[in-house]
Design goal:
The chain is of the alpha+beta class. 47% of the residues lie in helices and 18% in strands. A 5-stranded antiparallel β-sheet has the order 1-7-2-5-8, covered by helices on one side.
Length: 276
């Protein structure tokens, strides 16, 4: 296995830090462990609020962005692990192809205080092995990562499930975001979206950006690009057909937007099998 299939970083950010751009990890799963502070996340079409000791699991291909929590402008520190499906191929052969899907089916995990030291220790061991690699490090890292994922599976059985409680404003924005993600191939305008949220277009635009971290057009475009990527790899439809199915009315415009966002044309993306 290639060493670059796994990465772990520990970073401390200053107050008011928010990600400048949205993220899409095409082939990598992400485990975000918040050590201190408070953060807001927008993943696909769902809002999450993370506090000290919380973990967020982000599946490959999911659009996401982290933001400063409005009621907490203190610095924060976090661990982030990223790995590919292939990195845990052995465990999938033992536990089945749905192993990772089951691990990530409940994205937000609130680690109990009495178990945080245990989880932190697993992250620290992976970090130590990554910094001082020898012939046994990959095996140990995979073992620690596997132990972490099994903890998630076990904890899902005892953690109360359900949607996070949101205030009325956030709930309205989240509802519109979900509508966009399910109707991306329709002609959705800012006015249409604002009407669904029962807001004026100007007010909605400002609130959508504040709550999700995305501009309305930026989010809609990202959702459409994600669908286009899937169609490019899973179908033999023409570029024009894929552009229309994804919500782009003009294939030339689609090609320009895709290349600007992904660094290659739709044709090259298909030819390279999605490897950017």
């Amino acid at each position: 296995m290639r060493e670059e299939m796994f990465s772990i970083t520990k970073v401390r950010r200053e107050a008011y830090f928010s990600m400048k751009d949205s993220h899409i990890h095409v082939n990598e799963y992400e485990v975000y462990f918040l050590l201190t502070g408070k953060r807001r996340f927008f993943v696909e079409h769902t809002l999450y609020t993370l506090e000290k000791g919380d973990i967020l699991l982000i599946e490959k291909g999911n659009i996401h962005r982290s933001m400063c929590a409005q009621d907490n402008a203190l610095p924060h520190e976090r661990y982030v692990i990223r790995f590919t499906k292939e990195y845990l191929q052995l465990f999938q052969e033992v536990y089945g192809a749905e192993f990772l899907k089951k691990c990530f089916q409940q994205p937000h995990i609130k680690i109990p205080i009495q178990r945080r030291e245990y989880i932190l220790n697993l992250f620290e061991r992976m970090e130590a092995e990554k910094k001082n690699m020898d012939e046994y490090s990959i095996l140990l890292i995979k073992g620690y990562l596997h132990e972490l994922l099994v903890f998630f599976l076990r904890y899902q059985k005892i953690q109360e499930t359900g949607m996070e409680e949101l205030d009325e404003m956030d709930e309205a924005i989240q509802s519109v975001a979900r509508y966009i993600s399910e109707n991306y191939n329709s002609n959705i305008s800012l006015n249409d979206a604002a009407k669904r949220a029962n807001m004026s277009p100007t007010y909605f635009s400002r609130k959508f950006k504040r709550v999700t971290g995305f501009g309305f057009k930026e989010y809609l475009c990202n959702i459409r690009l994600k669908e286009a990527e899937k169609l490019l790899l899973q179908t033999k439809d023409s570029i024009t057909e894929i552009a229309l199915q994804s919500g782009f009315n003009d294939s030339n415009y689609f090609g320009d937007v895709f290349k600007k966002a992904r660094g290659m044309s739709p044709h090259q993306y298909r030819k390279n099998k999605g490897i950017l």
